[in-house]
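Um, can you check?
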Amino acid sequence: MGRVRKFFAGSNTPLGFYSFFDQIIDLKQAHRFFILKGGPGTGKSTLMYAIAAELLNQGYDIEEFHCSSDAESLDGIAIPALKSAIVDGTAPHVLEPKYPGCGEQIIDLGQFWDQKALIRHRQEIVSLTNANKECYPRVYHYLRAAKELYDDTCAVNQKAVDNVQVGQVTKNLISEIFTNHNPRARIGQVRHLFAAAYTPQGLVDELSSIMDGYTVRYIIKAEPGAGAHQIMQTVVDHAVHHGFTVEAYHSPLDPQRIDHLALPELGIGIVSTYPPYTADQLDGELINLNDYLDHTLRMQYQHILHKNFVLFDELINLAIKQLRHAKHLHDQLEAYYIDHIDFSQYEHLKLEIVREMLRYEA
């Protein structure tokens, strides 16, 4: 059996839906890249799960990219050893071939539906589609408001942090990681993804899956604004400058900030934990940046920090509640398509895609 690592290539964020779909596979190096098209309920996720299971049983490692609109569904899978991937190319992450005819192929699952039957339900389908779409701007408004409160908390903690001490911690960490590893004669590469996403199932975190196999882990504990982000970015910059590959995992609350990172060539992972999110499921060397906060100064803002935390939590819950409503509407929409799809063709389609991927192994 191969190994499965789980990620999110896209996430619901204060900036709207934020996509790292171009990071699923390097199309300049890819052998096969399949883009699935088709409406809701046409079996895109089910087909990808089936392909992943087939290749997993043959010993290939699989990368699963889960959907932020439903964490139990897939947006894509990649098979690194085969330099192949298959993705959902429908909204909100619309994809088209970048190098048409060069190993990239669109698969239209609409060829298997009964269009005459679907047209009879046109009014219901249009109504549910539009109602589902209306949910997401509200999700983003709630997340944006929560981000404002988070930023205010960051501003308070930035006043209280001892930047000299945090700088020394950063310097020590870089020395500990890189001292025994010679720089490489190249510029390193960074792969950007999400380890977590706001979904109808809540904040879903795949850190345990991502960090499985990393023997050295550092866990940075820090209040918002206490310096964890700066440490992550400094380590990334140092690694790239010295030729190492980096996996950078961005925050769904602020997709321009790195929450966690991994150095695959060194077997090292670095994760951060900040209220209200924890990394209790992971073991590692703790770096507690809260030791370098002036807690006497923070006490002056105790009421503000508490109110920010309470309101932040309420806004996140409202965003998740709205995502659940969107999923409920989507489930109703899927039912119309599921009833009018000929799924008998999918086993043959699965085997054909697997054969195409394996053909390039030789």
